[in-house]
C-alpha cells in the first residue's frame, strides 16, 4: 500500500489586482501562509511542485525568497491544469515514500492581460512558403477556425449531448448568473458584484454565446498547499489532525484519441476518464459529494462538466441545472466560490485554489458561504491540450 | 499561380480536403503525423474528405487577432464521418442564420497575393 496523503496547510491569496506585488511576492505569500497553517517551515519541506505558466518564474526563484534548502523542485507547465499538476507532483512523492512533507505552489499575474489566446496577429510573410505539419502559408487563427478559448469552449458547449438545441445562449447566461451570485459571498473573489441575466446577456459579446461576464476573469493570485504523509500526520497534535483534509483521490489524465479531437479539443472524454479514476481511487461516488469546484473557464464549460463528472444522469445536464441543483442551496452545490467567471482565473493558481476552496468548507472555515456539514468535495480543472485534474477531498473523521 | 493556405487543401481538379488515414485502424487526421495517435501504426494513406457536411457546432468570434475581420463564424463540420474545423462563409455570421445541423459545402476564396504575385487560396464551408 502506498501512503495516504493529507493536506496539512493550505492558503489562497485574494484574487484580483495586486499592483504592488510581483509574482514572487504572491507565491511567497501563499507558500508562507500555507506553511504557517501547517505549522512547518521550509526546513520540513522535502519536495516542491511549482507552476507559473505565464510568468516564467521557477520554484527555484521562490526558494530564493523563502528558503533555499536544496530540495528537488518540479517546475510544471500544463496550461490551466498547471496548479493541479504541481499538487499531483508533491502528492506522488509522498505516496512513493520519498517525502513526508511536500509543498505545491501555483501563481500568476494576469490583470489587464486581455484575451490570452487568439489575439496575436501573425505578420503575413512576403512570400507564401508552406511551413509546419500542415504546410500553412500564413497564420491560421481566424482563417481556419479559432484558437480563442472563448470560441473553443463555445463550440464545446453548443455540441453538448449531440448538439442539444436547449444548450443555448440563455442557458449559458443563467449558469454565469449563478457564478456571479455565488461570488457575492466570497471576499477573495476578483468580482463580487451580483449580475442580472439581462446584464450578462447584454455584456459585450466575445465569442457567441459567451459574453464578457461568461468568461473567466484574468487576475492576479496564488495558492499553495502543504501535503503530509498519513504516517507523519499521526505523530502530530490532535488539533492538527482534526483540521487536516484527506486527499482521497489525486488524478491527472490527458486526452486519449477520440475521432475529431485534433480538430476540436475533447475536454469531455478526458474529464470523464479522470473523474472515473478518481471515484474509483476514493471509493466513493458523485452521490457522496457535498460540494464541487469545477473548471468553469467559460459558462458553457460548466454545463458539460456536470455530465462529465457524473453529477447528473448521462445527457441530463440541462435538466439538472434547471432544477437548481447546482446553486449553493441546491442538492449539489457547484462553484460556491463564484468559480472562474467571477472568483477569477490566475491560471497556474487555479488548480490549487479550487482545492483550497473545497478544503476550507470541509474544515468548516468558509464563513458566510460555508456549505454546512460538508464532509466530501471534488475539485476539477481542465488544461487545454488537454489535461484534466481531479482531486477528491474528505474531512477528517477525528 | 495560386497556392492553398494549407497543404491538406488540394485545388485541382476540383477543390477538396485530403486527410491522412491510418492503414491499420482507419483513424483520420489532418497534417503530417509520425504515427497514428489511435493505434501507433506508422503507415498512412491519403483520404479524400467529402466536400459536403453538416455543421455540428459553431461560435461567432467578435474579438480576434488584428487583420481578421470580425465577426466571423467558425465551427466543426462533419463530412461523411470526419470532423473538420473551418470557418462558415457566404452567410451573415449571426446565430439566426448559423445553426447546428446546417448542411454546408466546401468553398474556396482568394486571400491575397504575395510579393511574387502568387495568390493564396483559403477554404471554408457555405450553406448548400
Q: Can you put this structure into words, describing what you see?
A:
The complex is a heterodimer of chains A (398) and B (128). Helix content of chain A is 34%, strand content 18%. With 398 residues, chain A is α/β, with parallel strands linked by helices. Chain A folds into 2 domains: 5-113 and 219-245, 3-Layer(aba) Sandwich (Peroxisomal Thiolase, Chain A, domain 1); 149-215 and 249-395, Thiolase/Chalcone synthase (Peroxisomal Thiolase, Chain A, domain 1, 3-Layer(aba) Sandwich). In chain A, the strands form 2 sheets. Chain A has a 9-stranded mixed β-sheet, with helices on both faces. In chain A, helix 10 packs across helix 11 (299-308). Chain A is globular. Chain B is mainly beta. Chain B has one domain. Chain B has no helices and 10 strands. In chain B, a hairpin with a 5-residue loop joins strand 3 and strand 4. Chain B starts with a strand and ends with a strand. The model of chain B has no long low-confidence stretch (mean pLDDT 97). Chains A and B meet through helix 4 and strand 5 of A and strand 4, strand 6, strand 7, strand 8 and strand 10 of B.
Global shape of chain A: globular
Number of strands of chain A: 11
Radius of gyration of chain B: 16 Å
For the record, the CATH architecture of the largest domain in chain A stands as 3-Layer(aba) Sandwich
Oligomer: heterodimer
- The helix content of chain A is 25-40%
Looking at CATH, the homologous superfamily of the largest domain in chain A is Thiolase/Chalcone synthase
Percentage of β-strand residues of chain B? over 45%
